Amino acid sequence: MKTHYIPVVIVGGSQAGLAASYCLQQRGIEHIVFERNTVANAWRDMRWNTFCLVTPNWQCTLPGFSYTEEYGGSDPDGFMLRDEIISYIEAYRAYFNPPLHEHTPVHSVTSHEAGFEVLAGDQRYLAADVIVATGAYHLPKLPGLSADLPTHVLQLHSSTYKDPAQLPPGDVLVVGSGQSGCQIAEDLHLAGRRVHLALGSAPRAPRRHRGRDVTAWLVDMGHYDITVDDHPQGEAVRHKTNHYMTGRDGGRDIDLRRFALEGMQLHGRLQAVTEDQIEFDDTMLANLDAADASAERIKQEIDKWIAANDIHAPDAEPWFACHQPEGGNSCISLGFDEPQNLAAVIWATGFTSDYPWLEVAAFDEKQQIDHWRGGSRQVDGLWVLGLPWMVTWGSGRFSGVGRDAQYVATRISERNHQPQASSL
Fold first, then answer.
1. Continuous segment of H or E residues that includes residue 31
2. Do residue 53 and residue 115 come from a single domain?
3. Are 12 and 77 contained in the same domain?
4. Containing domain of residue 57, as a range?
């Protein structure tokens, strides 16, 4: 096996890996990017057909390639659909032509006197620095109760759901009320399916307030510049559930009360699966109230900002609860011959991180890469990009990954990398 010497190896070829590549290229640092599948693979294969961004397109600011300027996007206040997101990332690749090797899995990264030994594809590489840019969403997370469901009920994780036609006739249960769960429940509801939604403690955010998208207000308020170090919750914020809203059809609130008024069945947390039924606890109303209270708090903070800065803005339209669904414990019958039988369950229950190829002592007690601002606390020369709340709220999104990539590239440059020829 031939050995190649390369200053920096980047693992992962989506927006985080490409952002890192661009920043290194600008500094004249030789590197290589390995992608197990193809560019933007997770966007292509792990999102449903009507998926769209929940942040406006103008927040898409990959290094050297903003949505409005270099990309030439014509709808800055809109929300890119899945296929448009893929096109944006593919256009970024074409914009600067990174040294990207697709369909080249990284089998192992181990310590070496040169820094790291990387086995990728059928080749061996020695590198001084390695950037892990594979994101945080690797393995679908399913609760143990999923094993107790009868075989006639189709089970899908949110990463494999595509559209309502994929499911057999009958009722559909969506478990999880974070962004994916609420948006998939909406997708099914708008298609005329009878939907059950098991609510967790995910908060809700308003889409617009006082004449502007809430995102624009929060940018002005400096919300997206708050770092983990300055956040009241500290590093615990990395595990906080995102607020749910949608960019669908130009962007709007997701009002679960209205969905319930229109026939969607809301439940508390999944509690048990018996031979005859699925049982839920009585937390539905409390979770619904807490989500709505979260949205109201965001509006109140914006109102304070408007008043403090003497900004002229339209008056707010008062929010009211359009419906109060019945609370208490609830259940769904599992009888196959019931008039409204349960046909499918979609688990919007998140992911776990998985780095079986990263064979260095870089992990904390939760088996997450232990880092500060993307630099490993334990392994010199190991870096990470694209994780949620890596530095700020935008670290795992188009709005912040570029800033993080610039920082990491600068730190790598300070380690005295010099442009050099290689055997690649």
1. strand 31-34
2. yes
3. yes
4. 3-138+353-414
